C-alpha cells in the first residue's frame, strides 16, 4: 500500500470500522494491474487475475471494470466473478479436482478455457461436454519439473507435486484430445509456484513448453495460447523482485515468430501490497523475560505467518515516533489457543494496550484464507477509493457463525 494515508487517517479508519480490519487501496490495485497491461503493449494477451488471492466482490468488480479476466479454481469463485460483473469469456479454470457439477456449471457459463490437470479430467470433461452438447475449450497444465526456488508449500512445478501433467505424457494426451469430439484444443499452461523472486525458472519452463508446442504443431495440432500462470513475488522484507515488464518481455521474446496469445494468472502481485491488516493491542504480558503483545487479530484472520513461517512487516500506527528507549522485542500474538498463533516474532517495537498495529502487505492470501476458528467472526474489509473509505464486507457476527446449526438442535 502506498504511503498515501497517514497514520492519523488510518487510526481514524480503524476507529470507525473497528478491528481486526482489512484495508485495501484501489489505486494500488489499479497500478499493479496496469503494470502488467503495459508490459504487453499490443501483444495479444489475457490477464486473468487469480481470484484465490483475494476474492472480495468489490475487488473483483474493480478489476473487471479494468478489463481483467479471472483465473478460478472452484465453482464458488466462478459465481463470485459473475456476481461482480466479470466476463465469463475471460475466465480460465485451474485446479486438480474439478467435480462433474463444477464442469457442468462452467460449461454452461461459457468460460474461455479449462486448464486440465489429469487424464481422468480429460475423460470426464469430454463426457460431460458431450452430454451437454457443448464444445469444451481446453489447455493442458504442464508440470515442467522446474524448481521455482520458493517455499515448498507454494512451489508447484516439481514432478513430485500434485499439479499438472508430466511433460513426457503431454504430447500423446494432446493427440488423444484432438480425436475427442467434444474438446476444442486452445492452449497449454503452467504455473510453477508463488512468491517467485527469480526469473530463470520461468525461462526454463517457457523453453520446455514452447518446444512441446512446436512438436505439436509439426504433428498438426496448433495451439492458440500459452498461459504462464502467476507467481511473481512481492516485497515483504528485502526480496528482489521480478519486474512484470521483464517477465512479459522474456515470454514474448521466447515466443518469437510463433502466433501465440499470452495468458497470465497473477494473484499476489495484483493485491498483495495493496492491503493491510489493522489490529488493536489488547494487552501486553511478559513470560520468563519474553514480551508478548496480544492483539485482536489472530491466525484465523491471517494464517501466513503460522502456515508458511512468512515474515510480514508490523508497524505501530498509534505511536509512530517509536522511541528506541521504549522498544522491546515482542512476539505479536493472537488470542487463539495455539502456540502457532502469531503474526510476528521478535519485533522491536514500542507499544501499549490500545495501540493500533498494521500488518503490511496483507492484501493477498490474507482475508481469503481466513477461518472462523475459535468461533471468531471474520474481519471487516474496507476499500479506499477516491479518498473515501468504503466498507466492502461487513464484519461477521458471532451469531451468524452458528446459524446453520440452530435448526439441528434437539428439540
Ligand atoms: N495460477 C494458479 C494455477 C495458482 O495455483 C496460483 C496460486 C496462481 C495462479 C496465483 O499465484 P500468485 O500470482 O498469487 O503467486 N497461500 C499462499 C500462496 C498460494 C498460491 C496458490 N496458487 C501464500 O499465502 O503465500
From TrEMBL:
Pathway: Amino-acid biosynthesis; L-lysine biosynthesis via DAP pathway; L-lysine from DL-2,6-diaminopimelate: step 1/1. Its cofactor is pyridoxal 5'-phosphate. Keywords: Amino-acid biosynthesis, Decarboxylase, Lyase, Lysine biosynthesis, Pyridoxal phosphate. SUPFAM superfamilies: Alanine racemase C-terminal domain-like, PLP-binding barrel. The gene is lysA. This is Diaminopimelate decarboxylase. Belongs to the Orn/Lys/Arg decarboxylase class-II family. LysA subfamily. Substrate binds at residues 268, 304, 308, 338, 365. Gene3D superfamilies: Alanine racemase, Lyase, Ornithine Decarboxylase, Chain A, domain 1. GO terms for biological process: lysine biosynthetic process via diaminopimelate. NCBIfam families: lysA. The active site is at 337 (proton donor). GO terms for molecular function: diaminopimelate decarboxylase activity; pyridoxal phosphate binding. Transmembrane segments: none annotated. It catalyses: meso-2,6-diaminopimelate + H(+) = L-lysine + CO2. The keyword Lyase applies. The modification N6-(pyridoxal phosphate)lysine is found at residue 52. Residues 27-271 form the Orn/DAP/Arg decarboxylase 2 N-terminal domain. Specifically catalyzes the decarboxylation of meso-diaminopimelate (meso-DAP) to L-lysine. It holds the Pfam family Orn_DAP_Arg_deC. Its EC number is 4.1.1.20. Homodimer. Pyridoxal 5'-phosphate binds at residues 231, 265-268, 365. Residues 24-363 form the Orn/DAP/Arg decarboxylase 2 C-terminal domain.
Amino acid at each position: 500500500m502506498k504511503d498515501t494515508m497517514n497514520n492519523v487517517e488510518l487510526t481514524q479508519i480503524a476507529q470507525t470500522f473497528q478491528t481486526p480490519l482489512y484495508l485495501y487501496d484501489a489505486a494500488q490495485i489499479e497500478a499493479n494491474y496496469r503494470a502488467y497491461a503495459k508490459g504487453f503493449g499490443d501483444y495479444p494477451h489475457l490477464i486473468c487475475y487469480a481470484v484465490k488471492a483475494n476474492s472480495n466482490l468489490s475487488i473483483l468488480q474493480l478489476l473487471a471494470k479494468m478489463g481483467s479476466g479471472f483465473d478460478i479454481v472452484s465453482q464458488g469463485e466462478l459465481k463470485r466473478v459473475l456476481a461482480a460483473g466479470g466476463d465469463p469469456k475471460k475466465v480460465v479454470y485451474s485446479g486438480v479436482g474439478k467435480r462433474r457439477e463444477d464442469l457442468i456449471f462452467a460449461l454452461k457459463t461459457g468460460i474461455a478455457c479449462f486448464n486440465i490437470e489429469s487424464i481422468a479430467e480429460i475423460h470426464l470433461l469430454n463426457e460431460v461436454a458431450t452430454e451437454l452438447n457443448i464444445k469444451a475449450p481446453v489447455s493442458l497444465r504442464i508440470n515442467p519439473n522446474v524448481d521455482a526456488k520458493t517455499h515448498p508449500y507454494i512451489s508447484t512445478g516439481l514432478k513430485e507435486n500434485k499439479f499438472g501433467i508430466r511433460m513426457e505424457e503431454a504430447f500423446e494426451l494432446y493427440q488423444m484430445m484432438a480425436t475427442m469430439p467434444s474438446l476444442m484444443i486452445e492452449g497449454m499452461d503452467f504455473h510453477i509456484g508463488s512468491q517467485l523472486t527469480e526469473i530463470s525458472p520461468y525461462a526454463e519452463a517457457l523453453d520446455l513448453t514452447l518446444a512441446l508446442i512446436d512438436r505439436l504443431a509439426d504433428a498438426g495440432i496448433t495451439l492458440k495460447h500459452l498461459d504462464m500462470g502467476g507467481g511473481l513475488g512481492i516485497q515483504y522484507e528485502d526480496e528482489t523482485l521480478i519486474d512484470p515488464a521483464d517477465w512479459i518481455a522474456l515470454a514474448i521474446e521466447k515466443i518469437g515468430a510463433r502466433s501465440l496469445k499470452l495468458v497470465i494468472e497473477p494473484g499476489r502481485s495484483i493485491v498483495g501490497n495493496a492491503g493491510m491488516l489493522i489490529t488493536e493491542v489488547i494487552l501486553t504480558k511478559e513470560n520468563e523475560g519474553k514480551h508478548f503483545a496480544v492483539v485482536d487479530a489472530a491466525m484465523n484472520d491471517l494464517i501466513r505467518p503460522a502456515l508458511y513461517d512468512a515474515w510480514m512487516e508490523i508497524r505501530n500506527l498509534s505511536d509512530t515516533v517509536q522511541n528506541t528507549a521504549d522498544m522491546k522485542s515482542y512476539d505479536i500474538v493472537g488470542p487463539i489457543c495455539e502456540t502457532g498463533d502469531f503474526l510476528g516474532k521478535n519485533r522491536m517495537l514500542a507499544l501499549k494496550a490500545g495501540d493500533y498495529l498494521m500488518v503490511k502487505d496483507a492484501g493477498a492470501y490474507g482475508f481469503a484464507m481466513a477461518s472462523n476458528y475459535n468461533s471468531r467472526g471474520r474481519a471487516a474489509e474496507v476499500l479506499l477509493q477516491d479518498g473515501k473509505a468504503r466498507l466492502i464486507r461487513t464484519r461477521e457476527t458471532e451469531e451468524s457463525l452458528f446459524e446453520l446449526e440452530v435448526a439441528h438442535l434437539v428439540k
